[in-house]
Amino acid sequence: MASSFPGAFKVADDESLSLLRMIEPQVLADPHLLYRALRDHEPVHWDPYMHAWVVTTYPEAVTVLTQYSADRTPLPAYLDRLGLSFMKPFSEVMLKQMMFMDGSKHSRLRGICSAAFTPRRVEALRAEIASIADELIDKFMASGRMDMIVDFANPLPAIVTAKLLGVPVEDHRQLHAWVLDLAEVLGNFQHHPARVGEIVRSLEDLRSYVAARMEEQRRHPGGGLIHSLMTAEIDSQRLSDDEVIANTIITLIGGHETTTNLIASGFLTLLRHPDNMNHLRRHPEIVASAVEELLRFESPVQHTARIAPADMKLGDKTIRKGSRVVAVLAAANRDPNRFSDPDRLDLLRADNRHLAFGWAAHFCFGAPLARIEGQIAFNTLLRRLSNPALLETRLEWRENAGLRGLTRLNISFEPGPAQGI
Ligand code: HEM
Q1: Taking the alpha carbons of 120, 151, 271, 382 in that order, is the dihedral positive or negative?
Q2: pTM for this structure?
């Protein structure tokens, strides 16, 4: 079995095949070694350390996303029993977010939110996204170097989301700081007790912030998604205030971290595949297909969880009702039975129905916006930065096993359009 460090992923050794190993820096550096070992060993694998089934093949991941329950928010009493009472404010908000609901409760909420998040609203942002991308690049053009994350991939989605929500654009840094804190909890396997107080405070501050913006909208109705969420109706039903707040928060989390990581990790992938980068530079018209392949190849959301709604067969295993199942989207996206030569980057890959945005009822609500942001970001960066080169000697990935992204990405470049094109 291929591995970059000794003794890793021995098939007979359950501990080495645990998804919990994602907290080790070597595994974070390339989780696909672990995913491949898991897939080769058992596509549906009981992970005693996660106390969950871990699914790494494409068809089984699709089954989980299609048939299993998304209603996985731990209730307050259960959190108390586990000694995780600090999570209670999170469960209160999650209970009102569409991502953690099933059936008619989910479709009611998603339907009302869709009435606010229209394709027209997203399309109207296209020109603005292009000028934000250019303005961000203008700021560091003369210096010939940048931290792709701090200078570009963080602020671009943060500014776009502020505009989308209809809140003051200058608040984007504060919003981003709150969202970073919340993302630390989502889909992560390790929590630092010393950070708990700060993270809960961020959640409370963000809730109060959204409530204050709603109050303003009541006094002076304006455009923006928050106002639309407050007023959107389906069958004469509107969202409650708490639902508007909870789903504004999930839009913020969805809109920031994942899109940042699509742009920064995608750019790193292009730096590591210079032929592909040059091809995209010469043929910006293939950017839509390139973004899909970058999402498949280096998925910003590595996994998501579900609960078995009944005793069910999955692969050759029986999953008992109530068991937790983790669908590793990033592993399914490299399943060789679904994607030919899956570890090869192919910006023109045909039939690329990856799972990076999920599947079925919970398919990413913001995918059209994320796609536009990614397409504009890559085309703008490649049009404006000539000969980009990695300045990092050691890449550092965030300690977040669910939302995969770098802590920084320093690059050098020559200003102006690339030569020889
Ligand atoms: C590259 C960027 C993005 C990626 C990779 C991504 C990924 C995902 C994935 C995998 C899911 C499904 C989770 C599950 O089934 O458990 C999801 C759902 C969701 N995403 Fe995204 N997302 C991105 C951008 C966005 C943006 C820009 C927004 C909002 C503006 C957004 C809002 C949401 C929401 C609200 C849901 C829940 C949908 C539902 O439960 O019906 N996402 N996203």
Answers
A1: positive
A2: 0.93
